[in-house]
Amino acid sequence: MTKFALYPSLKDKTVLITGGASGIGEQMVEAFAGQGAKVAFLDKDESASAAVAARFKVEHELCDLRDIGHTQTAIKALAARVGNFSVLVNNAARDDRHDWRDVTPGYWDERMNVNLRHMFFTMQAVADGMIAAGGGSIINMGSNSWWEAVGNFPAYATAKAAVHGLTRTMARDLGQHRIRVNTIVPGWIMTDRQKKLWATPESLEKHRQNQCLPDLIDPVYVARMAVFLASDDAAMCTASNFMVEAGSV
To answer: Which CATH architecture is the domain 11-189+217-244 placed in?
Structure first.
């Protein structure tokens, strides 16, 4: 069994994770809870959220992140229960496939709402609390899909590319307050959703050949990167990309 590091600086830190009820987000909830942090998460899946919250004894609010007003209200409700957040992980996204010929203006806007817009507004919602506390860590989830020029989801790839610009500009704006902003860049992570929808034997073998490392990537390794970036060990890391893609870029 792999033995992972413990970060004493994370004990009792308040952590907010978006999309925490499944996949990478669920692994992040588990990882931060295992560090002794005070964890809360947002998700719109009622049954999955209840199960994760009960399993790890953490707080949660049901929330559709496309509704910014509801999202901000949910963050305030969670902060009232656990305290102002010192760590934000902007994890929630959906990599739904779509043919460029079929994309309408409405679909494009909806994909931006799902994969990009909420990241800025969650940052905005937690920043004042971090400033009052003298610092914090914000972690945005990017994707290596656009680095690799993967097709079949132009709106998703565009949103994920924009995450890097958002990270860097906010790192500059918030850095004076000792708030660090970084991007995690995952490769093809073997979540249950990926396995169910797209991970055929043929596609997996092709992907292995594109990686430097031969092993498929478990979600736990993305969560471990988030734990590091949230900790005081990463105190001088900001405005940067942290790759978890087994050398596939």
So the answer is: 3-Layer(aba) Sandwich (3.40)
